[in-house]
Every structure is written in C-alpha cells, then in structure tokens.
UniProtKB/TrEMBL annotation:
Gene that encodes it: plsY
GO biological processes: phospholipid biosynthetic process
Annotated membrane topology: Multi-pass membrane protein
Any one cellular-component term (Gene Ontology): plasma membrane
NCBIfam families: glycerol-3-phosphate 1-O-acyltransferase PlsY
Predominant location category: membrane
Family listed: Belongs to the PlsY family.
Entry keyword Transmembrane: yes
Keywords noted in UniProt: Cell membrane, Lipid biosynthesis, Lipid metabolism, Membrane, Phospholipid biosynthesis, Phospholipid metabolism, Transferase, Transmembrane, Transmembrane helix
Protein name from the UniProt record: Glycerol-3-phosphate acyltransferase
Species this protein is from: Leuconostoc kimchii (strain IMSNU 11154 / KCTC 2386 / IH25)
InterPro entries, sorted: G3P_acylTferase_PlsY
Length: 206
C-alpha cells in the first residue's frame, strides 16, 4: 500500500510541473497566464512565446505524463500505469505550484497513454493531426481525438483502457467548456495552418 501511495504522490508531483509557465518566465520574461488565452499549456505557449517554446512545452508536458505512467515499471509494481497516470493529469490541472490551478492536461494525458500503449497512442495522435489539419483548431482536435480513443479502445477488449479513456474524455470536454462556446460562436482561436485557417485567411482578404 505504501508503494502505491508513493507512486501516486510522485505522479501528482510530476504532473504539477509547469514547463510552459517556467520557460516563459525564465527565458522570455513573460507570464503566459497574462497573455493570449491565459492557459499554461502548449497552444498558448506557441501563441505567446513562439514555436520553439511551444514545441519544448509540448514535449515536456507529454514526457511528464509518460514518466508518471512508467512509475509502476520503475517500482516493479503490477498496478495499471493508466491508474497511476491519472494522478499526473490531476497534478497538471490542479498544480500545487499554482495554488491548485493549471492547464487542460491534453498533452499529459497523451503522455500517460504513450506509456501504457504506444500503438494506441500513435493511432490517437494521427487522428488528432488529421482533425487539426482540417479544422485548424487544437481544442476541437483534442476533443474529437479523445472521443475517438474511447470508441477505438472497445476493440482492444481492455476495460481499464476504455474506462480511463472515457473519464479523460469527459474531463477534456469539461475543461474545454469555454472553447466549445467559442467554436459554436465561430470565435475560437486557430493555428496559422490547416484547411480552415487557409479558407478563413482568403475570406478576410476579400
């Protein structure tokens, strides 16, 4: 029992690390909570700090989820990595370093999935990229790819995978409530590439 509690604590602390915020403060002298969307995740890091900081933030947010998911392997425990990884997702969303505030945990959730099932992770990422190319919206791509993950997980006959994927999908939709409203209103922020962004850019020139 002590080992399980220790893994959950370590997983939470890993998830609580906020690379996007700290990179902005140390290297760019900016607090990304005060600019752009105010979110401390990958998308706002791209928007406020640029592509280099955005890629680094994405990578580190992903890797902390993966590291959390690998804790059972490190400690030679038989507990499911997805269950331990949930603590990292909670840590990212309710970080101890940010007075229990945080981001939307999309990259961290994907990192946990990578630790548990790399093949399934690659499938979900491909769907995410495809939707992003079509819609130019990170938020919509995240919600659709997580929904896809739940449906696809049924074919793996893995109850834990399906259960955790469903919980994460509900959580992702809940954390993207404001994004859903903006998508409905046609005011959601877009990335500067993809089919939708190209169409929008052409229409603005007319």
């Amino acid at each position: 029992m002590f080992l399980i509690i220790l893994m959950f604590i370590l997983s939470y602390l890993l998830g609580s690390l906020m690379p996007g915020l700290w990179i902005g403060q140390v290297f760019y002298h900016k607090d990304i909570r005060d600019e752009g969307s105010g979110n401390i995740g990958t998308t706002n890091s791209f928007r406020v700090l640029g592509p280099v900081a955005g890629v680094v933030t994405l990578t580190l947010d992903l890797l902390k989820g993966t590291a959390a998911g690998l804790l059972p392997l490190l400690f030679h425990s038989h507990i499911n990595p997805m269950l331990v990884g949930i603590a990292a997702i909670i840590g990212h969303t309710f970080s101890i370093w940010l007075k229990f505030k945080g981001g939307k945990a999309v990259a961290t959730s994907a990192g946990v999935l990578l630790a548990y099932n790399p093949q399934f992770f690659m499938l979900v990422i491909l769907i995410f990229i495809l939707i992003l190319i079509l819609t130019s919206m990170v938020s919509l791509s995240a919600m659709i790819s997580f929904s896809f993950a739940v449906i696809t997980s049924l074919f793996y006959h893995d109850f834990t995978l399906t259960f955790v994927a469903a919980i994460l999908t509900i959580f992702v939709f809940y954390r993207h409530r404001s994004n859903i409203k903006r998508i409905k209103n046609g005011t959601e922020s877009t990335v500067p590439f993809g089919i939708y962004a190209m169409i929008r850019k052409k229409n603005n020139k007319k």
